[in-house]
């Protein structure tokens, strides 16, 4: 009951290809001198999450990877942003980790979302409720009722794929990496297109999210300020084929990941060094949107699933997405 499709059902936004040489004129990133991958969590089916430090262009990046066969993802709104009345949001997507659902599976990681909606960097849908209109041309992560992800450019042919039915969607800016290549405006350091930095200084902490050729999801954030191109280069260095920038500036990028599935509030020791926040805040409440990663059951033919949407997206009402186990090998009771 895992993801049975090929990788072609995991990304892609129409014209994205999985192979090919680097286009002429683009610059390959410097050699990676970071640490090797270390396993954080696993199941009998395989690795669920791992992490490392990437060192590229004299800058350290924390990298956290989720494996598509053994993990799933949910998106949560913040208490202040997106600006929507919390009473309209089901418990499973409110401004804290929902231990009643995500904790049943086992939380293994949590990380920040994108820009505040006032930045007009893209739209968002949570549990089927449109909290900001989706925009064509924006980099997008879509999540279905299984917590599976697809990433691509909204409005491009083939994204989302025909059999993928999104429940939640988050956009943020145009794509930073497409087909394994950093986008030209980032290469040219046209940083004004990549967010509003503090005091006009474009060298700011930036976070990013992308998928590799196997459909695994990678979160990256540096320990100091970088330009958009540097974030894109870091993504390419760890194998990202399609990537988007998430939130930026010193206050917002926050990662927490565990060494075992958490059924209750617990330690999240895998973090961004020098981060402004303790990620344990996500267990209580946080003002901005974020993603929660949980682990699939140990049995191969068993997975967590939510009800999904019966009538598509709505401008008025959300559809709660509580989790339950489904599959031939799931435990009884």
Which short descriptors sum up this protein?
333 residues, mainly beta, six-stranded antiparallel sheet, five-stranded antiparallel sheet, 3 helices, 20 strands, 5% helix, 33% strand
What does this structure look like?
- This protein has one domain (41-274, 290-326).
- The protein is built from three helices and 20 strands.
- The protein has helices at 102-105, 184-187, 228-237, and strands at residues 38-43, 46-56, 59-66, 71-76, 107-112, 124-126, 129-132, 139-144, 149-153, 166-171, 177-178, 181-182, 206-212, 217-222, 240-248, 255-262, 270-271, 290-295, 303-305, 324-326.
- A hairpin with a 4-residue loop joins strand 13 and strand 14 (217-222).
- The chain is globular, with a radius of gyration of 18 Å.
- The chain starts with 37 loop residues before the first strand and ends in a 7-residue tail after the last strand.
- The relative contact order is 0.23.
Which class of secondary structure composition applies to the elements?
Answer: mainly beta
Alpha-carbon Rg, integer: 18 Å
Q: Count of DSSP E strands?
A: 20
Give the tally of structural domains.
1
Mean pLDDT rating: 90
- Number of contiguous helices: 3
Q: Regions with pLDDT < 50 over 5+ consecutive residues? A: 4-28
Largest sheet features:
6 strands, antiparallel
Report the sheet-strand fraction.
25-35%
Instruction: Note the overall shape.
Output: globular
Strand order of the largest sheet: 1-2-3-14-13-15
Following the backbone from N to C, one meets helices and strands in this order, namely: EEEEHEEEEEEEEHEEHEEEEEE
CA-CA gap between termini: 19 Å
Q: Please estimate the helix content.
A: under 10%
